[in-house]
Design a protein that fits this description.
The longest helix is centred in the N-terminal third of the chain and has 18 residues. The protein has one domain. By secondary structure, the protein is mostly beta strands. The protein has a nine-stranded antiparallel β-sheet. It contains one helix and nine strands.
Length: 145
Protein backbone atom coordinates (compact mmCIF):
# COMPACT_ATOMS: atom_id res chain seq x y z
CA UNK A 1 0.00 0.00 0.00
CA UNK A 2 2.79 2.43 0.90
CA UNK A 3 4.58 1.67 -2.37
CA UNK A 4 1.40 2.49 -4.30
CA UNK A 5 0.97 5.78 -2.43
CA UNK A 6 4.61 6.68 -2.96
CA UNK A 7 4.40 5.87 -6.69
CA UNK A 8 1.20 7.88 -7.04
CA UNK A 9 2.74 10.85 -5.23
CA UNK A 10 5.85 10.69 -7.41
CA UNK A 11 3.84 10.56 -10.64
CA UNK A 12 1.55 13.35 -9.45
CA UNK A 13 4.43 15.56 -8.31
CA UNK A 14 6.27 15.04 -11.61
CA UNK A 15 3.10 15.73 -13.61
CA UNK A 16 2.35 18.89 -11.63
CA UNK A 17 5.89 20.19 -11.98
CA UNK A 18 5.91 19.61 -15.75
CA UNK A 19 2.43 21.07 -16.14
CA UNK A 20 3.47 24.35 -14.56
CA UNK A 21 5.06 26.18 -17.45
CA UNK A 22 7.18 29.26 -16.90
CA UNK A 23 7.23 32.41 -18.99
CA UNK A 24 9.84 35.17 -19.31
CA UNK A 25 10.08 37.08 -16.04
CA UNK A 26 9.12 34.12 -13.84
CA UNK A 27 11.37 33.09 -10.96
CA UNK A 28 11.60 29.39 -10.16
CA UNK A 29 12.44 28.00 -6.71
CA UNK A 30 13.45 24.33 -6.30
CA UNK A 31 14.65 22.48 -3.20
CA UNK A 32 14.79 19.08 -1.52
CA UNK A 33 15.54 19.24 2.21
CA UNK A 34 16.00 16.39 4.67
CA UNK A 35 13.90 16.03 7.84
CA UNK A 36 15.13 17.98 10.87
CA UNK A 37 13.36 18.00 14.24
CA UNK A 38 9.65 18.83 13.77
CA UNK A 39 10.24 19.54 10.08
CA UNK A 40 9.77 16.54 7.75
CA UNK A 41 11.61 16.17 4.47
CA UNK A 42 10.36 18.77 1.96
CA UNK A 43 10.40 19.14 -1.82
CA UNK A 44 9.61 22.54 -3.33
CA UNK A 45 8.78 23.67 -6.86
CA UNK A 46 7.44 27.24 -6.81
CA UNK A 47 7.13 29.89 -9.50
CA UNK A 48 6.92 33.61 -8.77
CA UNK A 49 5.29 35.51 -11.63
CA UNK A 50 6.09 39.15 -12.43
CA UNK A 51 2.65 40.19 -11.13
CA UNK A 52 3.45 38.92 -7.61
CA UNK A 53 1.64 35.57 -7.70
CA UNK A 54 3.47 32.60 -6.18
CA UNK A 55 2.26 29.12 -7.23
CA UNK A 56 3.54 25.59 -7.32
CA UNK A 57 3.75 22.52 -5.17
CA UNK A 58 5.31 21.40 -1.94
CA UNK A 59 5.60 17.80 -0.80
CA UNK A 60 6.56 16.59 2.63
CA UNK A 61 7.03 13.42 4.62
CA UNK A 62 9.06 11.74 1.85
CA UNK A 63 6.53 12.84 -0.80
CA UNK A 64 3.66 11.14 1.02
CA UNK A 65 1.85 14.49 1.19
CA UNK A 66 1.58 16.43 -2.09
CA UNK A 67 0.14 19.94 -1.83
CA UNK A 68 -0.58 22.69 -4.35
CA UNK A 69 0.57 26.11 -3.19
CA UNK A 70 -0.93 29.49 -4.06
CA UNK A 71 0.13 32.77 -2.53
CA UNK A 72 1.11 36.36 -3.12
CA UNK A 73 4.19 38.48 -2.73
CA UNK A 74 3.13 41.51 -0.69
CA UNK A 75 2.72 44.14 -1.74
CA UNK A 76 2.50 43.05 -5.35
CA UNK A 77 5.81 44.01 -6.93
CA UNK A 78 7.46 43.57 -10.29
CA UNK A 79 9.76 40.53 -10.06
CA UNK A 80 12.60 40.25 -12.57
CA UNK A 81 14.27 36.94 -13.33
CA UNK A 82 17.97 37.73 -13.14
CA UNK A 83 19.15 39.88 -10.31
CA UNK A 84 16.86 42.90 -10.32
CA UNK A 85 16.26 43.96 -6.74
CA UNK A 86 12.74 43.75 -5.38
CA UNK A 87 13.19 47.04 -3.52
CA UNK A 88 14.76 48.12 -0.23
CA UNK A 89 11.51 47.97 1.72
CA UNK A 90 11.44 44.65 3.66
CA UNK A 91 7.62 44.66 3.41
CA UNK A 92 7.92 44.40 -0.37
CA UNK A 93 9.65 41.06 0.04
CA UNK A 94 7.18 39.12 2.17
CA UNK A 95 4.96 36.37 0.86
CA UNK A 96 2.07 34.37 2.24
CA UNK A 97 -0.14 31.57 0.98
CA UNK A 98 -1.62 28.15 1.57
CA UNK A 99 -0.65 24.67 0.46
CA UNK A 100 -3.65 22.36 0.04
CA UNK A 101 -3.09 18.60 -0.05
CA UNK A 102 -4.05 16.90 -3.31
CA UNK A 103 -6.20 13.87 -2.51
CA UNK A 104 -5.66 12.16 0.82
CA UNK A 105 -6.99 14.10 3.78
CA UNK A 106 -6.99 17.51 1.98
CA UNK A 107 -4.89 18.99 4.78
CA UNK A 108 -3.95 22.67 4.55
CA UNK A 109 -0.64 24.25 5.58
CA UNK A 110 0.18 27.93 5.84
CA UNK A 111 3.45 29.00 4.19
CA UNK A 112 4.88 32.48 4.69
CA UNK A 113 8.22 34.22 4.72
CA UNK A 114 10.44 36.64 2.88
CA UNK A 115 12.26 36.88 -0.41
CA UNK A 116 15.83 38.02 0.16
CA UNK A 117 17.57 40.55 -2.07
CA UNK A 118 19.60 37.69 -3.60
CA UNK A 119 16.31 36.05 -4.66
CA UNK A 120 16.22 33.18 -2.15
CA UNK A 121 12.97 32.38 -0.30
CA UNK A 122 13.09 32.01 3.48
CA UNK A 123 9.93 30.06 4.35
CA UNK A 124 7.98 29.00 7.44
CA UNK A 125 5.51 26.13 7.10
CA UNK A 126 2.74 25.37 9.63
CA UNK A 127 0.16 22.63 9.24
CA UNK A 128 -0.87 19.12 10.30
CA UNK A 129 2.31 17.04 10.60
CA UNK A 130 4.62 19.86 9.47
CA UNK A 131 6.22 22.70 11.44
CA UNK A 132 9.26 24.22 9.76
CA UNK A 133 11.12 27.48 10.33
CA UNK A 134 13.58 29.37 8.14
CA UNK A 135 13.74 26.92 5.25
CA UNK A 136 16.04 28.45 2.62
CA UNK A 137 14.71 27.76 -0.87
CA UNK A 138 17.17 28.82 -3.60
CA UNK A 139 16.34 30.66 -6.77
CA UNK A 140 16.82 28.23 -9.66
CA UNK A 141 19.13 29.67 -12.31
CA UNK A 142 19.48 27.43 -15.39
CA UNK A 143 22.93 26.78 -16.77
CA UNK A 144 23.66 28.70 -19.96
CA UNK A 145 23.35 26.77 -23.17
Amino acid sequence: MHKLLAATALVLSTTLAVAQKTVPGDRVYVLHSEAQGSCPSLNWHLVASPDGVLTGMVTWDNRKVVAMFTGTIMPLVQVERFGKRLGDDPQSRTFQGVATEVGGQTRVASISGTIEQNGWLIANVDGPGVACRNIKVPLFVPTPG
